[in-house]
Amino acid sequence: MSSVMANNKTTNKAANKMITQKGFAIDLKTWGPFVALVALGLLGVLINPAFLGLDNLSNMLTRSAFIGIIAIGATFVITAGGLDLSVGAMAAFIAGVMIILMNSLVEQFGAGWTTILLGIGASLLLGVCAGFINGIVTTKGKIEAFIVTLGTMGIYRSLVTYLSDGGTLTLDWAVRDVYRPVYYGSFLGITIPVWVFLAVAIIGYILLNYTRFGRYCFAIGSNEKVAEYSAIHVDRIKTMTYMLQGVCVALATIIYVPRLGSASGATGVLWELEAIAAVIIGGTMLKGGHGRIWGTVVGAIMLTMIGNILNLTDAISNYLNGTVQGIIIIVAVYLQRASWRKTGP
Amino acid sequence: MRTIKSAVKACVTTAALTSAIGLSSAAVAQEVTIGVSIPAATHGWTGGVNYHAEEAKKRLEELYPDIEITISTAGTAGEQANDLEDLVSLRNIDALVVLPFESGPLTDPVRRVKESGVFVTVVDRGLTEEGIQDLYVAGNNHELGRVSGEYIRERLDDQGDIVVLRGIPTVIDDERVQGFQEAIEGSEVNILDMQHANWNRDDGFEVMQDYLSRFDNIDAVWAQDDDIALGVIEAVRQADREDELFIVGGAGMKDIIKRVMDGDELVPVDVLYPPAMIATAMDLTVQHFVSNGPVLGEYILGSPLITQENAEQYYFPDSPF
């Protein structure tokens, strides 16, 4: 997006960045998010020892899985210089369609895994399609990602409200009971959502750092024109990042639905901003060209942790929760950028 | 029919309409247009408001062919202010039924509607200035808090530890909490903590999870709202602590009423705060045009305790809420 405007500047910066990355790579820039996470954890323990309880940690990590998985997809989109504002609404829409579909399949297939797997399949398909639409309209239609995804955000949000008649869609009780372990169950003492989160993070890490696709994302985000002259299929790669984002949203929805077994117009509100915040806290640059998967993971956990800590204390007025959140997010990013600014160009 | 027409004649005073009635007795020109402005279905309760408004529109228009009802929904307070302007200038309404998004910002827009000679019915959220509306229809938030508090106090024999999940920080939430606190005042019922769960299931789930890891013993939960209550139920179920406590919600969502009806130990009661109040308001507003009895003043619905015995009369399986 900004590449055309600041063509020369970006090229210089990109070149400089390569150098900095070699020389000063291991400092606060990389470890900033982790340091902030540990600091926040210490704050949590100080405020209430119950913070370190096994149940609480497990609850928190499980909760962060939704935003975390979505944010990993967002890392690709943002690294390649795009933006997706539609993820929260998309999650609500996919959840709604999944519930309606599974409810209607119960008669035919019974309340078992066949129904649920069909629901899951539909969810993934919808995610890919929704991502494809975002991608193709952005690239082929030459419209800013901000506008395209703002539009699709409104579309999905109102579609789910329409599907639910303005109320709440509720999953059939029998199906729900079978499906429930996908959120509440655990394997080796770790809940399923956390495993999924971990798996998505590892795959994302490999994809972004060790494949040609990942390198293309960096290149396009750094300078789209140069990438194009280097014979990279910019449109195709960008569209693929949106499709990947769609798959991530679908995965998050698949583990979200069994939690409360419902979807409404209020599902996933502001998830897009939380996902973007997680990505930025993690050290990915909003203007593209540089992405960090593990930073994103930490960012997502941190966002959930802030809410969790605020719930564990009554020292701070409830009305000020947003203030505390805002300050912590800004400080976390500042810590990480401060050192980089000194060593940078 | 005749009574409608004469009522319309008596009430509608605009010159245009009177002359139209004078010209012919055909029904065309005598229509009364009622504008209904409500918040969009952003959470369960407003979803119910939308549903009941549509139902009432269908029913009333069928009953009174001369009455036309326009419903507009708004996503924000600003949008609703625009809606009000459009209703007056484009739809030429004779009466307005408005459930304000927020009291403060909409007081002035509603006043302007009133000044253009429209009959104004305000629902649920009172305006910040008195004397604007002709009719005020509302549930009783203070009463909802009080009834909930009294039930919990009685059930716990005047002592115990409870947690409270509040709604979105608004006047409604404050009034409910105030009523609740008054009801438990002087007893040994101790509120461990209050946090906002924003009338939202996901938030209810997360706040309750955190309460459960923070407090080893909780005797009762006041969730204040049925959407929150559903989230709370899941969190309690996950922690396997169903036997330790009970939950009191509020509003009258069908899922919760069903549980009360079925005698669920975890959700023994509910406190009514019905989204169907929009229908009450529309009915009364129509009565202003068709009845010879005066329609003005305040109409405050009770907030009865819904128990297993009386749950059936509050159960609407077809409503989305």
Task: List key phrases describing it.
A: 345 residues; ABC transporter involved in vitamin B12 uptake, BtuC; two-stranded antiparallel ribbon; B: 321 residues; Rossmann fold; 2 domains; elongated
Could you describe the 3D structure shown?
- The complex is a heterodimer of chains A (345) and B (321).
- By secondary structure, chain A is mainly alpha-helical.
- Chain A is 75% helix and 3% strand.
- Chain A is globular.
- Chain A starts with 6 loop residues before the first helix and ends with a helix.
- Residues 1-25 of chain A have low confidence and may be disordered.
- Chain B has a 6-stranded parallel β-sheet with strand order 2-1-3-4-5-11, sandwiched between helices. Chain B has a 4-stranded parallel β-sheet with strand order 7-6-8-9, sandwiched between helices. In chain B, strands 10-12 form a two-stranded antiparallel sheet.
- Chain B has 2 domains: 2-139 and 275-290, Rossmann fold (3-Layer(aba) Sandwich); 141-271, Response regulator (Rossmann fold), CATH 3.40.50.
- Chain B has 321 residues and is of the alpha/beta class.
